[in-house]
Structures
1.
Amino acid sequence: MRIALLGGTGDIGEGLALRWAFHTDHEVLIGSRDPERARTKAEEYETELDSRGVEVSIKGFENGMAADRADVIVLAVPPYHVADTVEAIADRLDGADVLVSPATGIRRDDAGFHYHAPSAGSVTKLAADAAPADVPVVGAFHNLAAGRLADLDADLGIDTLLVADDEDAKETVRLLAEGIEGLRALDAGGIANAPEVEGITPLLINVASNNDGMHDLGVRFE
Amino acid sequence: MRIALLGGTGDIGEGLALRWAFHTDHEVLIGSRDPERARTKAEEYETELDSRGVEVSIKGFENGMAADRADVIVLAVPPYHVADTVEAIADRLDGADVLVSPATGIRRDDAGFHYHAPSAGSVTKLAADAAPADVPVVGAFHNLAAGRLADLDADLGIDTLLVADDEDAKETVRLLAEGIEGLRALDAGGIANAPEVEGITPLLINVASNNDGMHDLGVRFE
């Protein structure tokens, strides 16, 4: 399968790109608003993988070009760029594509980090509202610590939660997620259930910052 | 230590009562608005523990009487009874007591279960607002499945998150929580961080109801 990581030059995009390239046979494309930056990062990822004995081609493109070539498009951009990123690639999408939304809204105050939902209710819903009606959106990969994901020496042993209103699209993303060693994908229901899923991310930061020796946390349902 | 479980005749109260009586030397008191009901349930818990070779005295009282006798008072009541329960026992409390709030607001719709915060922002904050100014409140035990907790044959192997603005009170509850075998207590910061903690509960229900073979879920941070 061809996976485009839009915003694939950022932290979470890097982690997902490296993991998919390392653990699976999927073809990974890096997207950025700046195609030169996408190509530079793609080469960095190739070098990192090559140093681990994995010879793989990772190509960088402007976001629209990456989306055009891919079956699954991950919106690995900050929450405030989700809607405009989807709108910028909308004419490259069709009903055979799957959009994946891993972003979450976070607000910080003196006490800690808090879930800050956009007015759509969740970032996943924001992406779904911006997407063409026939293109399914799946919320996933919200609660993965980027540093741990990008460190191919780090064991995961954690879960990621999926929310979607299209069961086929959810299944596609479930298989992609479980291709990553140590990652278990669990179904958290429809997009209406996204706020509680996205809200785990600030909680993980709060727990890590209040307990000695805990960092880059993930979550496991047992 | 003496622990009063107000609403200790309900599911989560039963689980905590049995676990503390089974795993620790703390004295457990059962509180209810109806003292006769409290005494009946206390006897049931004694019988259950006796069948497992644990001889322990558990007494039942009207909520105010239970609170009066205890060092730590757990508000194991539905969220809409938290404020009136605290107000009803307020004159029995002093600065040496610790109140514990395990309740969470949950709303159900067609998609699943959602966190429904009271206007105070969280149920823990609601309890803190209702409590006398010198009585510390700790949010804890939100994400424990009652059935699993009350089944002394069930392994836990899960975490509970603590939120409080009083570090001494938080430490008291941390020690109580970790007295329960298989339960790890993690610090999630101040009461302002309670919404994300309380929001795990509806998420656990959504995950359990959407994945075959998962039920009575807890969460572990790794």
2.
Amino acid sequence: MNYFIGAAIGEETRVLLTLFIMLAAAKFMAELFERLRQPAVAGEIMAGILIGPSLLNLAAPTEITSILAEIGVIFLLFNVGLETRPAAIFKVGKSAAIVAVLGVVLPFGAGWLLMIAWGSTTVESLFVGTALVATSVGITARVLSAMGLLDAPTARIILGAAVIDDILGLLVLAVVSSMAAGTVNYVEILTTAALAIGFTIFIAVVAAPVVTRVAPRADRLRSGHGMFILGLILCLGLSVAAAFIGVAAIIGSFLAGMALAEASEDHPNMHRQINGVTEFLVPFFLVNIGMQLRLDVFRSSSVVVLCVLVTLVAVATKLFGCGLGAINLGIRRAAQVGMGMVPRGEVGIIVAQIGLSLAVIGPELYGVVLFMAVATTLIAPPFLKILYATEPAAQAEIGPADAGGIVASEDLCNIG
Amino acid sequence: MNYFIGAAIGEETRVLLTLFIMLAAAKFMAELFERLRQPAVAGEIMAGILIGPSLLNLAAPTEITSILAEIGVIFLLFNVGLETRPAAIFKVGKSAAIVAVLGVVLPFGAGWLLMIAWGSTTVESLFVGTALVATSVGITARVLSAMGLLDAPTARIILGAAVIDDILGLLVLAVVSSMAAGTVNYVEILTTAALAIGFTIFIAVVAAPVVTRVAPRADRLRSGHGMFILGLILCLGLSVAAAFIGVAAIIGSFLAGMALAEASEDHPNMHRQINGVTEFLVPFFLVNIGMQLRLDVFRSSSVVVLCVLVTLVAVATKLFGCGLGAINLGIRRAAQVGMGMVPRGEVGIIVAQIGLSLAVIGPELYGVVLFMAVATTLIAPPFLKILYATEPAAQAEIGPADAGGIVASEDLCNIG
């Protein structure tokens, strides 16, 4: 029916075509990378660079690709949450907090100093520092779930640290943004902090046990697929709540997954259905990151140098900062944690977009931050694969009751 | 991270909120309707009317809801295709063709005559007639799959007739649109016809057997979930191809599903993953239909009368026209076929949008057609439930090899 048609309908077909190209390119590159023994995640991001505006220009980021990407990473973290018991995170809480704090302070400070030394203004330097702060935990979670290692002890630390890291990143962004605007409203920032921390603790401590108790009733729904529907509603609902409070939507979906982890244990079908949604949408998340890269920023060699320097600082500060926080686990595991916190992905991109929209950074610095965000996302997966290569899959640790979880983990093993 | 933020980011949170409201409202109403022994489909469309601009105004159709709705119905028909063997459709080909032709001629003629009698212009009358032509098979497919009756003999006829119906509808639309534009380009229309028919036959006769033979190799993909990934790519790919050729995207995804039906038989996990994507997205399709209804069209009582008349003609002509085509099956089954072809849903809405964009119909007649599209979609499901109530679930007919299909059908039984 889309033949004759005005803008509205022809537009829909063009959007469908874009989505098809994104999906097909992602899966082709994933397969290619797997055959080269490289992580599929990196392949899918590369697919985005390839088809994006910089190279083949077959597709470009739009509102629709961004929303699908956002829903994709929301489901990715929901999936990870479903495999994660709150207790497992609480147990590593202290380590995770130290990792998160060091992984915020070092990148921020080093990024700021680098830019000052480069001759940027104070506000610009503060913004680049801020962009180096927050980890995009989706990338690491994807790599670890593909290896069946979401239960590894360092995986728990990375997940816990990513939650704390996101809240700290929110606060740094709040302070720096209001400094850029001229006045620092401490009341507002403290309110933001209180809300973010309160929300997280409320979900983890109060809501999760309630959900665990109430969720089994979902099976009684006449309209069927009760646990799956409950999962969808909790996942989207808490994501929206998190976004409104100011933390990343994925924090909400991760918490939603954790809240349902126990109740959904003996629902392998629900796990497979959620897995289907995730597998369908995650390529849009990964390709959308790749498509952000603009190679036209490399017009001058000084920009190239800056891109490399910022990326080096971004990698080194998380690797050594977060690694330092986990050094009591031994060098190898400290390196796992540090490398797991390296990808900045969509979070770095969002900070760059805010900086641009506040006119705090110009298009050139925006391009540099985007480069750093995409590059850190590409660099981490291969090293993660090597660092975790000898780690035994640790599903048994969470106990024999976790049949659903194990089925899903097997599934996840094949993901990427 | 969405706190401080300019339009781009805050917008994303608002979109997430809209999607959450649509999903939650759909599932609440589905459950309510199930408890009242009404079809869940009707409940989800009602949810759209409730939260839409006419009543609570919590959400409105946007480009994003339309795309999600489109992807939703694409996956719905893909799912139905996966349960359908090409042979089963070919077997009923002649009946389906008669049903389709009668179901095109009668609604078009009666709609046109009604509008002429009402005092509309010739072009307006032709356009309303066109809007009455094409069936939205997604609604009926959803009802039948929820009852586990996709294998009923009349279900095959309805599916086959819907494919032919869509092609005929495309041609009627082509002729009427070009008449509205002033000149009828017969070459272009014949090309459209040839492409649409050729595409459909090519997929059904040539591509499907090839896919059946090649698909098992998908399991060898290193990146995992081979059959699921192949399904996604075929589903989106053929949808896009269909849309470019001019037929509805869902014809492409239905054919893609049929092509994979045999190869995916022993892949219950793939069926569950596809089912997960479908269950997640279909509510957006149904709610988006309901949200199209604008009650503000009812400002004059003559419009109310016209809405009722057009809807009556829309129901009666498909019910009796298509029923007549299947009368050799007996009254009850003829009524099943006739009622199964009644919903106009998104196809009627698209024709109305084209009419509006070509300035062939005004906003008032646009509102009337939208009312007809939504009303026929709400009317059919309860009657379908009654007409099919005594039909035995017929999965056994397709033979013992269909384990995957049966698993998926059981799943679908609980849908809605």
